[in-house]
Amino acid sequence: MGRRLLILGAGGHGRAVADLAVECGWSVAGFTDRTRGPGVLGEDDDIKGLIRAGKADAAVVGLGNTALARRSELFDLLKDAGATIPTLVHPRASVSRTCRIGVGTVVFPGVVLGAAVDVGDNVVLYSNAVAEHDCRIAAHAYLSPGVILTGAVTIEESTFIGAGAVLFPGITVGAQAVVAAGAVVTGGVQAGATVLGSPARPVVPARGA
Ligand SMILES: CC(C)(COP(=O)(O)OP(=O)(O)OC[C@H]1O[C@@H](n2cnc3c(N)ncnc32)[C@H](O)[C@@H]1OP(=O)(O)O)[C@@H](O)C(=O)NCCC(=O)NCCS
């Protein structure tokens, strides 16, 4: 299998993913981005063409938390294009062998994934994030550095968890919710809500409320 990786997004997160990819044995074919710059091969509209022209052997999403909605759209575009989408796990992450990790997911150094943890596609697990036994992290979720999911926490699709947040055992965070940096989440979070503080409280009404 070839080992040249295309990264969608040339910003800070994209460059962090490039660094991770090299640690995982890939070479970086280049980036796509709206703005031209070093290593940028084209824009979003060029992605399918670049893949079909064999400019890279595989591709991953490298947009960060400033473009959360676009992350899932670009992932779908990669699937439509028939791209090979790898899973990148840093050699210094600790992953239980009973853990499943989806494609397009990036696992940075120091991450710990415990027994029977299930991680979906296109998830970001930043440095030193911990998910203990039986957690479920759905597609497109984004866990910032140092997040702690205690046992059996469920993170639904496209949620954002800020740096250093701690989530109590067994709770569920609904789809597209936002948990602020440093929050201590002691109960469930509704889909689309933003919570912050210790104990965490909603700051924006849940969608439809
Ligand atoms: C929750 C969050 C998304 C809210 O962002 P926002 O809507 O732009 O909110 P603002 O920055 O305007 O702050 C609104 C208020 O909440 C407070 N606040 C913001 N973040 C807070 C936090 N994490 N904990 C406690 N209070 C916070 C602000 O001080 C401000 O208070 P004020 O109204 O008394 O001045 C953001 O603050 C946050 O925590 N982001 C996570 C950052 C992170 O971890 N990034 C990692 C990327 S890898």
Give a quick summary of the entry.
Helix content is 15%, strand content 28%. With 209 residues, it is α/β, with parallel strands linked by helices.
Description:
This protein is an alpha/beta fold and 209 residues long. It has 2 domains: 77 residues, Rossmann fold, CATH 3.40.50; 106 residues, UDP N-Acetylglucosamine Acyltransferase, domain 1 (3 Solenoid), CATH 2.160.10. The chain is 15% helix and 28% strand. The protein has 3 helices and 23 strands. The protein has an 8-stranded mixed β-sheet, covered by helices on one side. The protein has a 6-stranded parallel β-sheet with strand order 6-9-12-15-18-21, with no helix packed on it. Strands 7-10-13-16-19 form a 5-stranded parallel β-sheet, with no helix packed on it. It is globular and about 50 Å long. Bound molecules: coenzyme A.
Structural descriptors:
8-stranded mixed β-sheet; single chain; alpha/beta; Rossmann fold; 6-stranded parallel β-sheet; UDP N-Acetylglucosamine Acyltransferase, domain 1; binds coenzyme A; 209 residues; globular
Please give the alpha-carbon distance between the first and last residues. Answer: 50 Å
Listed once per kind, the bound small molecules are: coenzyme A
Helix share bin:
10-25%
Radius of gyration from CA coordinates: 17 Å
Measured by DSSP, the beta-strand proportion falls in: 25-35%
Q: Which helices and strands, and how do they pair?
A:
Blueprint: E1 4-8, H1 12-23, E2 27-32, E3 40-42, H2 47-52, E4 58-61, H3 68-80, E5 88-89, E6 94-95, E7 100-101, E8 106-107, E9 112-113, E10 118-119, E11 124-125, E12 130-131, E13 136-137, E14 142-143, E15 148-149, E16 154-155, E17 160-161, E18 166-167, E19 172-173, E20 178-179, E21 184-185, E22 194-196, E23 201-204
Parallel strand pairs: 1-2, 1-4, 2-3, 5-8, 6-9, 7-10, 8-11, 9-12, 10-13, 11-14, 12-15, 13-16, 14-17, 15-18, 16-19, 17-20, 18-21, 20-22
Antiparallel strand pairs: 22-23
Bound molecules: coenzyme A.
